[in-house]
Sequence to fold (440 residues):
Amino acid sequence: MTGDAARPVLFASEYYPPFAPGGAEWTNAEWAKALARRGQPVVVVTPNYGAPRRERGAGVEVVRVPFPRVPVLLRRRSGQVEVPALAHGNPLWNLYFTACIAWVAYRRNARAIHAQGKGALVAARRAARLLGRPALATIRDLGLICPLGFCTLFEPWETFDCSFGQYTSKCARFNLEHYHQEAGAARRAWLWLSVRLAWLGHLARRRALGGLDAIVGVSRGIMAVYPTRVVRADRRHVVHPLPPSAAVPSAEAAAHMRHELGIGDGPLVLYVGKRSLGKGTPVFLDALDRIRTAVPGVRFVFAGKGETRLPEREDVHALGVLDHARLFPLYRAADVVVAPSVWPEPLSRVLVEAMHFGRPVVATFTGGSPEAVEDGVTGLLVRKNDAGALAEAIIALLRDPARRERMGAAARARLASVFSEDKIVASLLDAYAAAARRTS
Fold:
């Protein structure tokens, strides 16, 4: 192997599996493995929360660097666990992680430095400039528009460019009113201070974003939310998530997992991910009674964490965070997977996983979801914030097994064409080539 292809791409991220607060980290891992399979080695630089310092396999090298001086406080179990936000949003962290990234990039002669998380963006850009390497970042949420990102829940705009006034007068107030209603005076004072400190870190990230050579969005939908003042039109590249590489579990494995988790018989509607306002959890909860009435014996399964409380009913199963060994058979057991987001969903990994396991999805016309779900073919799309339409779509699929079977097969076929590894790797390599041209 010669030329740039022999030199690794460096992924910089504040999390990397097995430490994965959400689907983004698994997308990063799938991208890394896919690049390596196509002859492009990858080295990942990420903090160490309690895993081996170095791992290497299938063309991907993972270098885990310690947090300075506080490794015990920040050590975490694997899974959906996050460290405090300020741990990755302060100047000392940015300086330290810059040095870590630059050192590894220099030693490995990395061809490009790709920030895969907001907490790595400033350091990745600085390290790239120190070494004269192309700098890229991935956009997969609203965190580079607003630290809280609540604007999209109450503003009618199509693109968002949050100001400090908007942030403090509306987003911060929304945060207190909807997520910390029971906080005491001391807690509210700390929240008031922390949201303002978060804005300082946000400014540093926005400056870094403006100096990148290329920006990768996981969907056209999420890129459309960002104004051109924030993300230049000539720097934009769209690269979809890759599906999991796991085999589809058998029907027997799915039935066994259902029994193991205490889920009774009956049609199964599966919700995977964070339970929150933006993810549309309250809208789905408002739809449950209509679904129960129309489809007796239905079961509702929630896999994931979140602040939205679930009703204590026999047909509602709150399973918490599940590892893939238990989650993937649940997809196979589900009759319908629901993703009722009301914010501009970038492109939920849940949709891609459901397609991989041949499950029809009921989702909303938001963000990148229509790029995954072909309405009426691989699933159904409904208006956001419409519990009635959501219920009717779920009921229609639960009552029609043949239609569910056709949609599941169509979903797998769409995955093979739109989300193929060849296309996604080619798109990533195009982004690296474009970034390199801007630094040459």
The chain has 16 helices and 14 strands. The chain has two domains: 3-160+202-242+420-439, 251-418. The CA atoms of residues 292 and 298 lie 6 Å apart.
